[in-house]
Write a structure and sequence with these properties.
Layout: H1 7-19, H2 24-47, E1 50-52, E2 72-74, H3 83-95, E3 99-103, E4 106-112, E5 122-125, H4 127-136, E6 142-146, E7 151-155, E8 170-175, E9 177-184, E10 191-197, H5 200-208, E11 213-219, E12 228-234, H6 235-238, E13 243-244, E14 249-254, H7 266-270, E15 287-291, H8 297-306, E16 309-312, H9 330-340, H10 352-377, E17 384-388, H11 396-402, E18 407-412, H12 415-418, H13 425-434, H14 439-442, H15 446-467, E19 473-477, H16 484-497, H17 504-520, H18 523-528, H19 533-537, H20 542-551, H21 553-558, E20 564-565, E21 568-569
Parallel strand pairs: 1-2, 2-9, 15-17, 15-18, 16-17, 18-19
Antiparallel strand pairs: 3-4, 4-8, 5-7, 6-7, 6-8, 9-13, 9-14, 10-12, 11-12, 11-14, 20-21
Helix pairs in contact: 1-2, 9-10, 9-13, 16-17
């Protein structure tokens, strides 16, 4: 009796008493109970997963307790939001069927079962890499996640989202929105479009189809059930400070790193640890992996990738870069060999016209490699980047001009095994040019040509690297990678010589998981049979064996394949039983390794 009466309730109870006095008491009880229940339902529907409070210059980081849908943000307490906005918000919630995904402070909307395959796809790897890459790429509209391939693809066009196919295991992830209620948009703000839409989802589709749209505003003057008046704004306009009001418009801002204040780290935003923040490393000297074809360079790329080296590649199976932008590797290699007949030469010894031609071609190649390194290094953090091109070892003097300070990983395999390799492209493509001044060499049988070129080229590469002691040089006998202990030593040496920056325990963790996987696949046993196969292949042809040793002797001696110990070449090394990672406990759950290609088994 002391409180002010509820006019609506009093009027309803008065009308009920006038029409039926006996039911007055029951009508009032029912009415008040119903009012409280409706109020409670509205309150729950509106604040379910919602952050209530005043918004500062940056989003408030407070996701749902279960980490599922994105958090919404209100600029005023619930009581300050008028009934029209409440109704509008409830309509929005009812009509939105998209599921949501959060990673750190990033928000994503998921569209399941879509046929989103298109020509604009760009392979980026796992889901976390896609999230990071999309935030750093202004052209990215979202990414496709293939459950069956366990692979993500960036998308610059998401118009195909309505092409649903039941059971299709493809999902499209698009940028989520920050919803901010109670703002007045200044008329001076330049918008990029205005239209009427039926649902907020239609407004999102429209915004994502615009080139410069960074978000949109829904005006709340109309009925919640009428078509919505929407204005679309650029990202820059969405980042300006709008005026708050108790009831005005609802802002939808596409999640953007630029919206985050300096108080919040990018690691928090992307949901990754601070030491994994991607950085542009394209200006750093690359690691170049070279050697005679058939030497095992692919296995070295797998090892380096496991040590977090960003390896740029054109071929997902061989990991090669084909240098199509300069017409492939053969043209510049032939121009150099035509005059030098060697891998150890001074670029100034090449005639000016051909020297200029080589430099122009390699500049195109270098520009492409640097662009790719810059793009890929923004997806995931790496300390070094590089590429693999076996024949590039014939162009090291020129590569030193465009990549000063590069590190060279020289992969070496017994030349007698190389002579029996299926890959004899170096002999087919370059032997005639390299030995055009030696008529007797041109008359040799193919296998002898192979070991002659292997011996000369690898010795010349080593000589060049020794003449340039400031260039990091890492020679690697591939045969030593088939023993667990020696593989660990290779990794430890690579970490030190190539300055990969791993702590001892982290390096052992990565290599340990890699070796564990190789052992599970019985890899060591299978790969060992490939090395030293020349013995069996020449056991009934001692003349061929003698010729291989004769023409390859210089290289075999230089790289410790000629002399043997316990029936094995000295190059295989001696297993003294030491384990460089004996002091590190390797946890399979914490130490994980994935092959850098789906083609490697």
């Amino acid at each position: 009796k002391k409180k002010k009466p509820n006019k609506s309730a009093a009027l309803s109870c008065g009308m009920a008493a006038r029409s039926s006095p006996k039911k007055w008491y029951y009508a009032c009880v029912a009415l008040m109970a119903g009012s409280w229940m409706v109020s409670f339902v509205m309150f729950v529907n509106i604040i379910d997963g919602t952050i209530v409070g005043k918004v500062a210059d940056r989003p408030i980081k407070a996701p749902y307790a279960d980490g599922s849908p994105e958090a919404r943000i209100l600029t005023k307490p619930i009581k300050a939001v008028d009934r029209d906005i409440k109704g509008m918000l409830q309509t929005i919630i009812d009509k939105t069927e998209r599921k949501r995904f959060t990673k750190g402070m990033t928000r994503w909307e998921i569209h399941h079962g879509l046929d989103v395959v298109g020509s604009d796809l760009e392979v980026v790897g796992g889901k976390e890499k896609a999230i990071s890459a999309c935030f750093y790429n202004p052209a990215c509209k979202g990414f496709v996640w293939s459950e069956s391939q366990d692979q993500a693809y960036l998308k610059t066009n998401v118009d195909e989202r309505k092409k649903r196919k039941p059971g299709l295991k493809l999902s499209l992830y698009t940028r989520g929105y920050q919803e901010q209620i109670g703002f007045i948009i200044g008329e001076s703000e330049k918008n990029v479009g205005e239209r009427q839409v039926d649902t907020v989802d239609d407004a999102k589709l429209a915004c994502e189809g615009m080139r410069d749209c960074g978000g949109f505003v829904i005006f709340t003057g109309s009925s919640p059930h009428a078509s919505l008046k929407v204005k679309f704004y650029t990202s820059a306009a969405m980042r300006s400070k709008f005026h708050s009001a108790e009831s005005a418009s609802i802002l939808y801002q596409i999640s953007d790193l630029a919206l985050v204040s300096g108080e919040v780290s990018k690691a928090e935003v992307l949901g990754i640890s601070t030491n994994e923040i991607p950085e542009d490393i394209s200006s750093n000297p690359p690691i170049i992996v070279g050697g005679t074809d058939g030497s095992g360079t692919r296995a070295v790329v797998t090892l380096l990738s496991n040590l977090n080296v960003l390896m740029v590649k054109d071929d997902e199976c061989t990991f090669d870069v084909h240098a199509g932008e300069m017409g492939g590797w053969p043209p510049p290699v032939r121009l150099a060999l035509k005059h030098s007949h060697s891998a150890d030469y001074d670029p100034l010894s090449i005639p000016e016209a051909d020297r200029t031609q080589i430099r122009i071609r390699l500049k195109k190649f270098a520009d492409k490699m640097i662009r790719e390194a810059k793009r890929l290094s923004k997806i995931h953090r790496h300390e070094r980047w590089g590429f693999k091109a076996p024949i590039s070892q014939m162009l090291l003097p020129f590569l030193n001009e465009i990549f000063p300070g590069f590190s060279f990983v020289h992969v070496i395999r017994d030349g007698r095994d190389v002579a029996f390799s299926k890959n004899q492209s170096p002999v087919a493509k370059f032997f005639g040019t390299m030995y055009s001044n030696d008529e007797s060499a041109l008359q040799l049988p193919d296998r002898i040509k192979a070991i002659r070129m292997w011996s000369d080229a690898n010795i010349q590469v080593r000589q060049y690297m020794k003449r340039n002691p400031t260039q990091p040089y890492f020679p690697l006998h591939i045969e030593t990678s088939v023993e667990e202990a020696s593989l660990l030593r290779i990794g430890a040496n690579a970490n030190q010589m190539l300055k990969l920056g791993f702590k001892h325990e982290d390096m052992c963790c990565r290599l340990g998981s890699y070796i564990r996987l190789l052992k599970d696949k019985d890899f060591f046993k299978g790969i060992k049979s490939r090395y030293g196969k020349w013995r069996k292949l020449t056991e009934n042809d001692l003349n061929l064996r003698s010729q291989l040793n004769k023409y390859g002797k210089k290289g075999l001696v230089e790289f410790d394949y000629f002399e043997e110990r316990d029936g094995k070449p000295m190059a295989f090394g001696v297993n003294d039983g030491t384990d460089v990672c004996s002091d590190v406990v390797i946890d399979d759950k914490e130490c994980k390794f994935e092959f850098p290609s789906k083609c490697v088994h």
